[in-house]
Design goal:
mainly alpha; ABC transporter involved in vitamin B12 uptake, BtuC; 0% strand
Amino acid sequence: MGPIGEYLVSPFVLRALLAVVLISINAGIAGSFAAFRSSTFLVAGASHAALAGAAGIILLHSIGIWLGVDPMIGGAVTAVLLALLAAHAGYAGRKGDVDTAIGVGFAFSMAIAVLLISLIPESATKVWGILLGDLLLVTWGDLGLMSAATVIIAALFFAFRREFLFISFDIEGAKAFGVHARRYNLLMFGLIGLSVAMMLKGIGAILVFAMMVAPAATSILIAGSVKRVITGAMLIALASGVLGILLSYFIDVSVSGLAAFLATAGYLATRSAVEYRSRR
C-alpha cells in the first residue's frame, strides 16, 4: 500500500469520511428545506448561536462546573432556540420579520460568543475549533452525536415531508387547508437549527453556511423535482467533502475549507453554465 493508501485508511481520515456522509445527509435534507422556505440566512444565524452555546458549556467546564454535557449539546440547544424564534417571527409569512429575528439573534449570539471566549483564554482553542472546524479532528464521540442527530432529523423530515413542503411553498394555503402551519413551521425550523449545530465540529461555524446552502442551491438549478433536489444536494455535498479529503493529501490546507470551497465553486460554475445556456 502506497503513502496515499495509508493516508486514506488512517483512523482520522476514516472518521472524516464518516463525518462527510453525515454532513451530506444534513445538507441534502435540512439545506434543501431551508432553501425551499427561503430561509437560508437561518443557517448562518443558527451556526453562530450554536457557537455561543458551545462556548457557554466550555466556560462552565473551565471553572469547574462539570455538567457532563458535550459542548455541542449546548450548541444544539441555542441553535434550536434561535431557529424557533425565527419560526415564530415568520409564521405570518413576513419574510422581513424572519430575517430581522435571525439577524438580531446572529448579532446577539456573536457578542455572547466573543465575551465568553475572552473569559476562557486557556480553553479558547476549543471554541476556535468549533468556529473553524476540522474534519480530520472529528472523534468517535462527535460521530456518535452527529449520527444520533442525523437519524432524528432524517426521520422527522421523512415523516412530515408533505406538511413541510406545503408550508415551505405556500404557508397561507396550508393554513386555509387546515394544516397546523405554526406547529410544522416551528418543527421544521427547529430541525434545521439542530442540523446546523451537529455539523459544526466537522465544518465549523464559519463554513457551515457554504456546506449546507451551496449544494442545495446548486441542485435547485439543475434538478426537476423536490426528490431530485434533495438527492442532488446530498451527492454534491458528499463529493465536495470526499474530494476535499483527497486533495488535502497533496495540499496542506484546511480540509473543511477545501470542501466548502468546492461546494461553493460548484454552485458558481453551475449557475454560470445555466445562465450561458439560457442566453443561447
